[in-house]
Amino acid sequence: MNRYYFKANFKIAIKSKKNFLLVCLLIISMTFFLFIVETQKIGDGYRQWRDYYESVQVNEDYFDSSSLRKKDYKQTYANLCKQSAYIAVLQNGEEFSEPQTYLKGSENLIETMLDGYKNNYKGAKTLNVPPKYELYQKLATYKYLYQHHVPVVMNSKASSTYLVYILSMLGSLIFLYILFISNDVWILKLRHSSLLKNIPYRNKDEISGKTTINIVLTIIPVLIGIIAAYIFAGVRNGFVTLNYPNVFYFNKIFAIPLWAYCLLFLVYVVLLVLFTTSLTLFLNQLTKNVYLTTLIGMLVYAISYLPGTISKYLFWLPSSYLNITNVFNGTVANTTELNFLNCCTGALILMIWSLIFMSCFSYLVNKGRRVR
């Protein structure tokens, strides 16, 4: 990497008003979104279980003597009665502050809820049961808490639970942040070549320099935001250990400590910056337009929201792996029904596409030089 060329580009990047605004917005949003979580009572576990209990009771009343003669209906009714019994255990655990009792009751309840899917809760017309995969995620979390004797936190406003929530949101949107940071990564060179006129460079200097700059403009604000969010939520609502679990998918769904999740999150963000920078370098050179570069980048991201029946045939495209949350919690693998689509697969595909875009960028630059 040409040191002088890198310094010149770095000074331009950090003096950019757009980049400064984006960095500040990211840190402020990660920290102070806590007020919305508190006001809206997002992640209130007690309220969620109470609402579900009411739904179970309502659906129990749908069954009469004639419907219970049917085997499927009888199985559903027995399942709902069993769920009611486990919810009573949860209430006892809550009332007498017995964490292990509460966690074991939660495990039993979720396993019973999953059993109900064997006949798709036939006869329970309005039961508000969570999707099956969401139940597997909850089960993994409760098993981790029970096995490691970590007290459950039934809200998203304590230090660790808020960090889990904000990382989930950030993982869905971080690609757009990187896209806006890097959408003019090559336009400056095209429009203001005199600024860097007397500094020799090679294409690999351009690629490595721009990527490094974007990593700095992304990783440092994200790291500051993580620390600020944890401390701010802890000061307001109490500190919780960083061993608190977060859901993670590899070849099956399980839970890992939050500190480990944060490290994996940051590593994956670096790969996402590498991909996005190579994409925007290529699009800048190809379109010579910031807005068109941004639009195409957003379209690439939008493909990730196609139905799973379509996405399973497009798994070789980078789009499905731009949403870190969906990759890490197994949503990509679940919706496409392709179990091998995990973070390692995503990282590999992003790296391959990065190399493709870098090669295309270098080809266009060299072609332009020959024309001149």
TrEMBL record:
Keywords assigned by UniProt, alphabetized: Membrane, Transmembrane, Transmembrane helix
Record-annotated membrane-spanning stretches: 20-37, 162-181, 212-233, 253-283, 290-310, 339-365
Protein name as catalogued: ABC transporter permease
Species per Swiss-Prot/TrEMBL record: Lactobacillus melliventris
